[in-house]
Amino acid sequence: MKYRKAKARINFVRFFFRIFTTLIFFVLCITLLLSLSAKFISSDISYIPSLLSLAFPFILLLFLLTTILLLWRKKFVLFFISLPLLVWATVVFDRYVHFSSLLKPHNCPKTDTTYKIMSFNVRLFDLYNWKGYHSKHQAMIDFILQEQPDIACFQEYYYQSDGKYPTTELIRKGYSSFYIHDHYSVINKHKDHFGIATISKYPIINKGIIPFEGTSNLCIYSDIMLHGDTVRVINMHLESVRFGIEDYAFISSIDKSLPDSSEIVKTKNVLNRLIKALKKRNKQAEIIAQEIKKCPYPLIVCGDFNDVPSSYTYSVIGKGLIDTYCDMSFSLGSTYNGHLPWLRIDYILHSKHFKTCHYTTHHVDLSDHFPISAIIAKVNNNAMHK
User: Fold this and answer.
1) Is residue 100 in some structural domain?
2) The model's pTM
């Protein structure tokens, strides 16, 4: 009798475990599908896919572990159901950790028309001493001058016109040929300038702004003369989440304990900020995409997108363009130097008029973003005019 009862309990536990793992599997299927669909769905329609896309690598990891468990338990029907999702997810994950670049030839045309492009959110050159460089922000300037990019796009650029924080002058001194296109959304006391800047060793022959409403974030374009050809460089800083110190402290302190009422309030605050920023970024991306469509020149697009490669923002802006990271790099592509280290949110893209020769994420602790750079080459003069 006791044996039968024990066996019945074991059978019940096994039955419960089968039901539980199957339920978890289908929940993960739906969650992964929603995160993958983010690239097609604007946050105005639904913000849920965009929110889930921020956690895509972790969702994929859980899905893989569950799929392995299904194989171990010989649930082949469920495994074959998961295969299409796994294939799709692998293609998307290639933009986070780029494996397929190993299969590509890494040769570059032997030509004088190669250019080093940099994108760097300089975080106001550590104006408020976030990194302890307030008194020696020269370290950031030195890094830029050491790298000597032919074209550099800076976000969260700061310039003080009274000479106390002369960022532009310090960079200018390190270049024999220097052109700048800067634009400031905030100017305090007629001397503190907060904005965005593109510098170039080559002449900037035209400048423009791609305006956003209701924000201090910016996007500019600069038409640069590169060896007789006009190339448009778009430099953008898309909507930030604008987390405060308390928000970051809360994110860092999340543990497995049950949340109390104050933590629920903080969670709602973080989610509201994320959703608000997602909606603004999506609209900004659509505005930029329209400008890209109208562009009559070969194109280089740089900036802090504040969004991940599986996002609607990235998909809309990057349509028809080549991501230099995906074209050349084999590494973990994280560019955010903060509490969420898996995030690749800074990009250098270009049109098919160029070929990527090299890509680097510079792991220097100067800002809350790592600077990125790429060396690109003109394909040929005929392609430049197509």
Assistant:
1) no
2) 0.86
